[in-house]
Amino acid sequence: LESIGFIPNGNTIEGSNGSPGVAIGRVKIMITYDENIEFNEGDILVTGMTRPEFVPIMKKASAVITNEGSITCHAAIICRELGIPCIIGTKIATNILSTSDMVKVHANKGIITKL
User: Fold this and answer.
1) Where are the alpha helices (H) located in 1-115, listed in sequence order?
2) Nearest Cα residue to 90 out of 73, 43, 100
């Protein structure tokens, strides 16, 4: 698993820096925008990839983590505009993280750590 972004200690996932910064918060996994999930100010959005309909939720997020994407993907661009940390291209974040996990997002380094 190490080659696809998961560090064997069981607490860390790697991805690419989409937008710099550091945030700590509770994970909310949303695979599709229309899921009935309560998303609170400061939660961390974890999804496969974002699309324009995710923007209202992204505005509430303290950080965004995606499985897919590169530096020019929707999540990276919107997070840079909003000034919030974003880690893209983890490949596995929606499979490894769970809703309500507390995590630290260190986007400058592309590292997500379960707390």
Assistant:
1) 55-60, 74-82, 93-96
2) 73
The partner residues of 66 in beta bridges, in order of sequence, read 47
List the structure tokens of 110: 């592309």
Closest CA to 54 of 29, 69, 34, 33: 33
User: CB-based contacts of 80: which residues, under 8 Å, 6+ apart?
Assistant: 18, 19, 86
Catalogue the active-site residues: 74
Residue-level pLDDT at 34: 81
Question: What does pTM read for this prediction?
Answer: 0.92
Residues 6+ apart with CB under 8 A from 85: 19, 20, 21, 22, 23, 62, 63, 64, 79, 105, 106, 107
Check residue 9 and give its pLDDT: 64
Q: What is the CB-side half-sphere exposure of residue 21 using CA atoms within 13 A?
A: 18
Q: Are 114 and 97 in contact (CB under 8 A)?
A: yes
